[in-house]
What we know:
The chain is 25% helix and 23% strand. The strands form 2 sheets. It has a 5-stranded mixed β-sheet with strand order 4-2-3-5-8. A 3-stranded antiparallel β-sheet has the order 1-7-6. The chain has one domain (10-161): YbaK/aminoacyl-tRNA synthetase-associated domain (YbaK protein, Alpha-Beta Complex). β6 (134-137) and β7 (143-147) form a beta hairpin. It is of the alpha/beta class.
Amino acid sequence: MAKKKEEKTNVMRILEQKRIPYQPHFYEEGEGPEGTREYGLHVAQALGQDPERCFKTLVARGSSGGIFVFEIPVGKNLDLKKAAKAVGEKSVELLPVAQIHAVTGYIRGGCSPVGMKKAYPTVLHQTAADYAAIYISGGKIGAQVELAPGDLMTLLRASLADLTAEE
């Protein structure tokens, strides 16, 4: 598979500014395995990585009106009750796609927890701690960054919790 043009993103600039080691990875846009619309699984496949190490960024609004960011493995689904519990809300609902750019500054498929318009409370799925490095969006479609989950958590003041639905 041909590589996408390697262009430094704001996420990469922020990581460099904060002196956080990372490895950039680039891939061609596409659909998920067998033509599915699972972009996260496509990314893992394009990078030749285990989908459990590749995390997708989900943005939700709590019942109090606050915005929260959740990082979960690309092949998993967010359990809204577990997510609400993790951030101390009665409930959370995922933001409609049409609101993602206005809230985060990113578009769907290129949303990163690093460099959003505001610093929102962020929770990583607990399995992130199982790996020396995980992959997150590089801030645009076609770019990912590989970094230590501890460094990401420190940068974002994030916490860990069980966030995914049982399969």
